[in-house]
Amino acid sequence: MKIQPVILCGGSGTRLWPMSRGGYPKQYLKLTGELTLVQQTAKRLDGVESIAAPIVVTNGEQRFLVAEQLRQAGIQPSAIVLEPVGRNTAPAIAVAAQLAMREAGDSLLLVLPSDHVMLNESLFVELVHAASAIANDNQLVTFGVEPTCAHTGYGYIRAGAALGAQSRAHAVEAFVEKPDAATAERFLSEGGHYWNSGMFMLKASAYLKELERLAPEIAEASSLSLERAKTDNDFIRLNADAFQRCPNVSVDYAVMEKTDRAAVIAAADLGWNDIGSWSALADIADADDDGNALFGDVLADDMSNSYVRAEHRMVAAIGLDNVVIVETADAVLVAHRDKSQDVKKIVERLNASGRHESVTHRRVVRPWGSYEGIDQGERFQVKRIVVNPGAQLSLQMHHHRAEHWIVVKGTAVVTNGSQEIILSENQSTYIPLGVTHRLRNPGHIPLELIEVQSGAYLGEDDIVRFEDTYGRVNAA
Question: How far is CA 289 from CA 5, 285, 307, 350, in A?
Answer without folding.
Answer: 40, 13, 13, 37
